[in-house]
Amino acid sequence: MKTTREKLTINREVPVIVITGFLGSGKTTLVNYILSHRNGRKVAVFVNEFGEISIDGQLLINVEDDMVQLNNGCICCTLNDRLADTIVEVLQRNTSIDYLLIETTGIADPLPIIMTFAGTELRKLTRLDAIFTLVDADTFSPDLLANSEAALNQIAWGDLILLNKIDLVSPEKYDRIQKQIRQLKPDARIMTSEYGEVPLASIWGIEYSHPDFGEQPDHDHHSEHLANDGFVAVSFSSDRPLSVEKFQTFLSDRLPTNVFRAKGFIWYQGNNSSHLFQLSGKRYQLTPNYPRGEPPNQLVFIGRDLNRETLTQDLQQCLHEIPNHEPRPIMDR
Ligand SMILES: Nc1nc2c(ncn2[C@@H]2O[C@H](COP(=O)(O)OP(=O)(O)OP(=O)(O)O)[C@@H](O)[C@H]2O)c(=O)[nH]1
């Protein structure tokens, strides 16, 4: 790691925006909004996803060269060192980058990430401008904070709390959530948004965060939140189409109540294109006409104490049966 950094000769601090927030709160939506309003700025995006299959990476707009996917682990714990190395590599490769945008997983504790910027050699190369914490106004409840250390720390460390999905809540619920957030963080800057649409003046050139933890010893800023919060991701992929009826029945009758978030691409029998499937809390949404990737069915389910085997079997049961079909291997984890 040190060797790579020693080679780097940039004498400016590249501003960094960290986008955090609980599962399904709207982080990817906000990243896309920011990217579509970057006005010529060169933005490198780092996307961290929980689960082996990258879905968010496929949903981001126009970032082919300057997007780095950090999968199968969480940058606030197992991938922490890799994040620092990868950032150095990207800055080295592309010295004209104006901004770094980091999208955390929904179960990330932002503190170790802040420490990566503020307490390692990265503080000489980057400047942590802002930590945006998205809160899903629809699914938010004080229970979430009581049961998830990550959700609590996301609010505690956010420079700006973005109360997103405001279209889904009544003014009374909105007032209640605001009060609940202020109980935790009395001086919170709170903004509201629909689909991450925020005034651009609140994004570029904001210098909210100035933490300086001094140089920290390596490996000193890992988090135990995954073990504490008990979240697991179950990924499923298949190159056989799903039966619409069977998948709908699965969603209404068999989907475990402890699934908090699901996302991915699904291909129904008889369709040429895929659907984007998004489930957050109790709501789900299917958006048609997504290009069929390989394999065309890619799904990730995230929740607490999920029974991997049962969920995988249930999804396999949703596949369309082709008469005399020779079973092909299904990649599941
Ligand atoms: N009604 C409504 N839906 C929204 C809004 N913002 C985002 N969504 C939807 O919420 C779902 C989750 O949004 P994402 O942007 O993928 O959320 P995320 O925080 O990246 O989710 P993770 O992948 O779990 O980290 C998608 O179906 C979005 O279209 C909003 O303001 N209102």
UniProtKB/TrEMBL annotation:
Keywords: Chaperone, Hydrolase, Nucleotide-binding. It catalyses: GTP + H2O = GDP + phosphate + H(+). The keyword Nucleotide-binding applies. Residues 231-319 form the CobW C-terminal domain. CDD domains: CobW-like (cd03112). It comes from the Bacteria. GO terms for molecular function: hydrolase activity; nucleotide binding. Transmembrane segments: none annotated. InterPro entries: CobW-likC_sf, CobW-like_C, CobW/HypB/UreG_nucleotide-bd, P-loop_NTPase, Zinc-reg_GTPase_activator. Gene3D superfamilies: CobW-like, C-terminal domain, P-loop containing nucleotide triphosphate hydrolases. Belongs to the SIMIBI class G3E GTPase family. ZNG1 subfamily. This is Cobalamin synthesis protein P47K. The lineage of its organism: Bacteria, Bacillati, Cyanobacteriota, Cyanophyceae, Oscillatoriophycideae.
